Amino acid sequence: MDNNNDEELSLKLFIVLSRAFQSIKKRVEEDIRSYGLNPTEFAVLELVYHKGDQPIQRIGDKVLIASSSITYVVDKLEKKQLIKRRPCPSDRRITYATITSKGENFMNEVFPKHKTAIDEICAGLDSKERDFMIHQLKKLGYFAQKL
């Protein structure tokens, strides 16, 4: 009986977690779109803004998007003059995505607003509850990775 109850709880946890994630993701994407970017463009721009120049070939791993989409996303951001490509001086096979001054100014204005929007989305939990959820979800995620 306990095993059956655990299975039911696990299923309910999965459903609740999935629905919560979808609701949060929808609100975050609405915020991002209000700045004239799609979520993938924002993720790439935010990575380069916070972490500095990034090899284009490795961006997909860091922002969890398919490497086949990276060139397209970088092209779009380049057309918007938010990032530019810079060849690696020591290895012709590597090209870096570099934030432009226009991109830097854009993120200086937009990122604090985005951070506030995420805080408002998460306001259903107080600070202690957020910290607890972070630890619990990490624990669950690491366990699932090991399976």
From TrEMBL:
GO molecular function, one term: DNA binding
GO biological process terms held by the UniProt record: response to stress
Keywords recorded for this protein, A-Z: DNA-binding, Transcription, Transcription regulation
Limits of the HTH marR-type domain: 10-142
Record flagged with keyword Lipid metabolism: no
InterPro entries registered for this protein in UniProt: HTH_MarR-typ, MarR/SlyA-like, WH-like_DNA-bd_sf, WH_DNA-bd_sf
Pfam families, A to Z: MarR (PF01047)
Protein name: Transcriptional regulator, MarR family
Species per Swiss-Prot/TrEMBL record: Evansella cellulosilytica (strain ATCC 21833 / DSM 2522 / FERM P-1141 / JCM 9156 / N-4) (Bacillus cellulosilyticus)
